[in-house]
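Narrative of activities, Objective 1.

The group set out to show that a structural description can be obtained from nothing but a protein's sequence at a throughput compatible with the screening campaign. Below is one input-output pair from the validation batch, recorded exactly as produced.
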Amino acid sequence: CGPCVSMKPKFAKLSDRFGNAANFYAVDADARPVSSKHGVSSMPTFVFFKDGAELDRFSGADEAKLETLIE
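Output recorded for this entry:
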């Protein structure tokens, strides 16, 4: 997926920057049942959890939105 490829280095950069405050996981949605468990139907999708509860999510290649939600 083109947007997934474009977000991969941005995701890595944000993971390096905020890795002490949060855990970052990349999942191959085609190979992992976790994507269907969490209702991921488009890619890339970013899902935010705290203490096991979903806080927010969005789909798309929007680095600024991703960074805002992480902060």
